[in-house]
Structure formats: C-alpha cells, structure tokens
Prior knowledge:
Layout: H1 7-15, E1 30-35, H2 39-51, E2 55-60, E3 65-67, H3 72-77, E4 86-88, H4 90-94, E5 98-100, E6 104-108, E7 113-116, E8 121-123, E9 126-129, E10 133-135, H5 147-150, H6 161-172, E11 178-183, H7 193-208, E12 213-218, H8 226-237, E13 241-244, E14 252-256, E15 261-264, E16 269-271, E17 274-277, E18 281-283, E19 297-298, E20 305-306, E21 309-314, E22 319-320, H9 328-346, E23 355-365, E24 368-379, E25 382-385, E26 391-392, H10 399-421
Parallel strand pairs: 1-2, 1-9, 2-5, 9-21, 11-12, 11-17, 12-13, 19-22
Antiparallel strand pairs: 3-4, 6-7, 7-8, 10-18, 14-15, 15-16, 20-21, 23-24, 24-25, 24-26
Helix pairs in contact: 2-9, 2-10, 7-8
The structure holds flavin-adenine dinucleotide.
Amino acid sequence: xxxxxxxxxxxxxxxxxxxxxxxxxxxxxxxxxxxxxxxxxxxxxxxxxxxxxxxxxxxxxxxxxxxxxxxxxxxxxxxxxxxxxxxxxxxxxxxxxxxxxxxxxxxxxxxxxxxxxxxxxxxxxxxxxxxxxxxxxxxxxxxxxxxxxxxxxxxxxxxxxxxxxxxxxxxxxxxxxxxxxxxxxxxxxxxxxxxxxxxxxxxxxxxxxxxxxxxxxxxxxxxxxxxxxxxxxxxxxxxxxxxxxxxxxxxxxxxxxxxxxxxxxxxxxxxxxxxxxxxxxxxxxxxxxxxxxxxxxxxxxxxxxxxxxxxxxxxxxxxxxxxxxxxxxxxxxxxxxxxxxxxxxxxxxxxxxxxxxxxxxxxxxxxxxxxxxxxxxxxxxxxxxxxxxxxxxxxxxxxxxxxxxxxxxxxxxxxxxxxxxx
Length: 422
Ligand SMILES: Cc1cc2nc3c(=O)[nH]c(=O)nc-3n(C[C@H](O)[C@H](O)[C@H](O)COP(=O)(O)OP(=O)(O)OC[C@H]3O[C@@H](n4cnc5c(N)ncnc54)[C@H](O)[C@@H]3O)c2cc1C
C-alpha cells in the first residue's frame, strides 16, 4: 500500500523544506498540479474545484481545446462533426482552474516540481498525471509517424487531424474497396473501441458504398462484447465484415503505406483501399519514469499514487495492473478518487474507501447501442470487480433495448463532458 503520511510525516516534510500545504484557510493554498486535460485530467480539475475549494488547481495541457476519442467513431460514420466532440477549457477557467497550455517535460517527485517545455517550473503539494497513451511506433514494422498520415490510427485525437484524415479517406475510397483494420493485443485504450469503429465504418459504407468490405485483422482471439457485436454485424451489415483472430493469421506485423498493404504474422499480404492501424501502446512519455517494463505505471489501488513516487497520482489510461478497462469512464472515476485521496492526505487524514465504476456504451448501428458495466473495489490484493455487479447487455432480438442503449450512450457523453468541461 502507499505511504499515507501522518500529520507528523507532513510536519517532517515541511521541516525538510518540502512544499508547505496549509489547508483550512479561506484562501486555497495547497497546490494541486494536474498534467493532461483529457478524461482523467479535466475530470480531476473540475472535481477538485467543486469539492475541494481549499486546493489551488493548475492544469497543464498543450492543446487549446480537447477532441474526445469517445464519439470519434460517430464522426467516421458521418453522424457527427468534429466540432461536436471538441471542448474548450473556458469552463474550467471559469471554475477557477489555472489552465497552462504547455507540455510537462519532467516530473520531479522528490523536489515536488514539474518543469514545462516552455521553461516554467511548477511546484506542487500533490500532482495528478493523466497524460493518456503513447503509440509504440515501430512495434508493427513500417508503422511510424509518417506512415500514420497514409494509414491513420485515429487513436490519439490530438487536434483531430487523425480522425479527419480517416474520415476523408473513407469518403474518397471507391465503392467495392476494402477497409483494413489492424487491431492490437491487450492491454490497450478502450477494449470495445475498435469494434465500435468497425460498426460505424460499416454503417457509412452500407449507406454510401455497399459493395465494399471491412477486413478486421486482430492480434487477439476474442474481444469485449464480442457476441453482441457479431450479432449486430450479421443483422445490420450481412457479410460486409470479416473479423480474423490471431490464430487464423489475424496479427498484422508489417505495413507498407506506399503500396497500401498489410502483412500478417504468417506472411499473408492484404491490399486495402483504407488502412486503419491501431498499434500497440504504452503510457505517455511523461509517465515513463514511473512505469513498469510493460510501459504502464503501477499504482496504489486506493490513492492511485505511483508505487515509486508518493505524492504523484497517475490516473486514466497510463496506469497499470488493474482489471479495469482503459476507458474515459474509469479515468473520470479514478480521477475523483485521486483528488479525494490527495485532499485527505494533505489534511493528514486517511483517504476515503473507493468504489470505481465503468460503463462502456458502443454504437453498432442507427438506434442500436450495447454496453458493458463493472463496479470495482480496492482490496488486499489490489482492485477487483465486485462479484455480480456488472455484465453486458442481453443478447437476442431486442430493438427497444438497443434503441434505449443508444440514447443512454448519448446521455452519457453529454453528462461526462459537461461535468469535465462545464
Ligand atoms: C475510438 C475510441 C472510442 C472510445 N470510446 C470510449 C467510450 O465510449 N467510453 C469510454 O469511457 N471511453 C472511450 N474511449 C477511451 C477513452 O478515450 C480513454 O480511456 C480516455 O481518454 C483516457 O483518459 P486519459 O485522461 O488517460 O487520456 P486522454 O483523455 O487522452 O487525455 C490525455 C491528455 O494529456 C495530454 N498530455 C499528454 N502528455 C502531456 C504532457 N507531457 N504534458 C501535458 N499534457 C499532456 C494530452 O494532450 C491529452 O489531452 C475511447 C477511445 C477511443 C480511441
């Protein structure tokens, strides 16, 4: 478990010249610095200002506005514009968050300082990192940043250009072409995401290029909500989608963007009109000093402090070793716990006992939504799903259930982004 400093330890820290939290005064004086203004970081900043006015909150994020991954697949379907999934930081500013548009270059957990690329140095009493993922360039031979211009990943939205490029390529491809997807093994950001993407591309193709095919090459043997997705694909898109698991030569090991070819583990080459490569991943660069060999950050299950850096909480996709999926919902849930734990520890109190939630909705077609739910608790052996707490949507011909879940998905998106940025 983490080091939960007693009042004595905090006083010892102060005596040693560490940053001096002084909580309980009318004015906020304990400094919480948050790195990354996405699902985990914006949630943490918003929650900190709402629930802990004693915290002085600074958010460091290079992008001027945030384009969400969730609902990016609906942009590919042509259902939504990029504008509708782009969010401004003005709401957080209005809540009293200092938003600094820069990139964190280094976190020093001992001196409790974060150096920004632009030169500013921010001292902190507690830091929360939620920088998301980095793509493992080169893990698939031939797939680097230049290749991503021809075969976009659309997995780290940045300024939205990857999603825009993928959408344009779908619009420009001929009817009868093949859309190829390369899907990674676990763990990766958003386990159901690639399969929602397949669904949304199929929705677009069925309406506009019905002779086209989708070839989904997967480095795994199975996937989240598999039976539900495959039921929906058969019902809505007939034989348009072919999903190939690793054991049937689904693992893409090399790409040739000039020839628009995927090559698999056993040497099969596939020519594609549009190539969407979702490569293997790890925690973003700024979190790497705290990461394990797999590239993810081990954390305390109650406070989400990095195991090797007390005082630095790592939430969102960057952390490791929990059974919870890498989702926006989990990033939001763990961010709130990290803020509550940080505030308690700054007061010299024990952190609250956490309950973590996840619901991942996926759109399969028009008025056709499905979901997976889980509730998790921290125990002596780490985080575990509460037995009987979750599950997936029921199978069967259930049009009203599917229609409602599509509506719930929209409501979820509006409420979580409203909470983060409103
Ligand atoms: C196609 C797709 C669909 C998805 N759909 C869903 C869904 O329906 N529901 C769901 O719950 N989840 C969904 N997800 C997953 C969800 O997007 C992620 O789990 C979530 O964004 C993780 O939050 P995060 O805070 O860890 O990272 P992010 O939300 O990516 O935020 C990270 C932020 O950190 C910033 N950053 C990085 N490095 C630095 C640095 N050095 N200094 C400062 N800032 C930095 C980045 O610019 C970025 O803004 C989807 C993902 C994809 C790809």
